[in-house]
């Protein structure tokens, strides 16, 4: 299959490209060399590549940063999605398009009876990032309903693995643990450790994306998640245990988000029914791989 990835040099994009090549796909990745809101440049790239599948990963994804640059987040994540879908319609190869949204669109869940979250659960975005992703979903749904375009929407919950930047909680914790080991510090700064998230290894996530391109229903939304939530505190303790070190956590107010979603847990049933997918990488293995990655870094 001829596949094209936007955001191909990002954390997920690199793992996806590797997975697709292992399956024998011909892969083209585009990233910052093309502005995602430039429909003309996108059309030229898509026409040249003639992809059968497009994985749209390019986005501004840092939730905290979205509070500082809300308009830029809307421009990239919403207008960029519209430009990409328009270019895909016009490029001549009629590609299937997978648009990545986020579980952040569900917002805060205060009633445990509403968990796990399903694709038809209410959406109530709390952050500029989440709002941009829900708006991008609407653009993708319109492309399917209005143009008959083969578009699939995915809502990945928290995905982690080696190579992820320390803008996110798990790699940030691993990096600080390694830094403390090297410096001999007795404490590490942390944000809110009580938040609970549904974590999936990035290698399982990219498997799901490829399976959905093959078997997903056009116009449908799919959660990509493990179906299990775990607290950031448990993740931090797990990393400390794997590191074999004793450190104290010290709350740093600058690391606490203005608005925090207390718990997210999804239902992957629709994905499993469509593709047979199930998580394969144990959480302990993921954490060990993340810690090993940061131990290879000189910074």
Write the layout of secondary structure elements.
Elements: E1 2-6, H1 11-22, E2 26-30, H2 39-49, E3 53-56, H3 63-68, H4 70-90, E4 96-100, H5 128-147, E5 151-156, E6 158-160, H6 169-183, E7 187-190, E8 196-197, E9 199-201, H7 202-215, E10 221-224, E11 230-231, H8 232-243, E12 248-251, H9 269-275, H10 283-295
Parallel strand pairs: 1-2, 1-3, 3-4, 4-5, 5-10, 6-9, 7-12
Antiparallel strand pairs: 8-11
Distance between the terminal alpha carbons, to the nearest Å? 38 Å
Total of helices? 10
Radius of gyration: 19 Å
- Portion of residues in beta strands equals 15-25%
Structural class: alpha/beta
Q: What is the succession of H and E elements?
A: EHEHEHHEHEEHEEEHEEHEHH
Q: Reading side by side through the largest sheet, how are the strands ordered?
A: 2-1-3-4-5-10
Largest sheet: 6 strands, parallel
Helix percentage range: 40-55%
Total count of strands:
12
Summed over residues and divided by their number, the pLDDT gives a mean of 93
Low-pLDDT regions:
none
Specify the overall morphology: globular
Task: Sum up the structure in keywords.
single chain; 299 residues; alpha/beta; 12 strands; 16% strand
Tell me what you see in this structure.
- With 299 residues, the chain is α/β, with parallel strands linked by helices.
- The chain contains ten helices and twelve strands.
- Helix 5 links the parallel strand 4 and strand 5 (151-156).
- The longest helix has 21 residues, at 70-90.
- It is globular.
- The N and C termini lie far apart (38 Å).
- The relative contact order is 0.15.
């Amino acid at each position: 299959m001829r596949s094209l990835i936007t955001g191909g040099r990002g954390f997920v994009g690199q793992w996806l490209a590797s997975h697709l090549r292992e399956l024998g796909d011909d892969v083209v990745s585009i990233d910052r060399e093309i502005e995602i809101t430039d429909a003309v440049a996108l059309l030229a790239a898509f026409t040249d590549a003639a992809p059968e599948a497009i994985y749209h990963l390019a986005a501004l994804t840092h939730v905290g940063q979205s509070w500082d640059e809300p308009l830029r987040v809307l421009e990239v994540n919403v207008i960029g999605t519209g430009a990409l879908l328009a270019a895909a319609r016009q490029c001549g190869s009629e590609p299937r398009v997978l648009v990545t949204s986020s579980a952040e669109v569900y917002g805060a869940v205060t009633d445990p009876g509403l968990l796990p979250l399903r694709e038809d659960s209410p959406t109530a975005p709390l952050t500029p990032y989440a709002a941009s992703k829900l708006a991008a979903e609407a653009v993708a749904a319109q492309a399917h309903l209005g143009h008959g375009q083969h578009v699939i929407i995915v809502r990945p919950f928290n995905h982690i693995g080696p190579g992820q930047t320390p803008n996110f909680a798990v790699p940030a914790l691993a990096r600080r643990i390694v830094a403390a080991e090297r410096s001999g510090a007795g404490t590490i700064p942390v944000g809110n450790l009580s938040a609970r998230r549904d974590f999936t290894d990035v290698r399982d996530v990219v498997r799901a994306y490829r399976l959905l391109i093959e078997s997903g229903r056009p116009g449908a939304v799919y959660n990509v998640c493990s179906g299990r939530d775990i607290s950031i505190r448990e993740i931090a303790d797990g990393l400390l245990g794997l590191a074999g070190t004793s450190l104290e956590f010290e709350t740093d107010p600058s690391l606490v988000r203005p608005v925090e979603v207390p718990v997210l847990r999804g239902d992957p049933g629709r994905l499993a029914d469509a593709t047979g997918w199930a998580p394969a990488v144990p959480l302990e293995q993921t954490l060990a791989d993340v810690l090993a990655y940061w131990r290879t870094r000189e910074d």
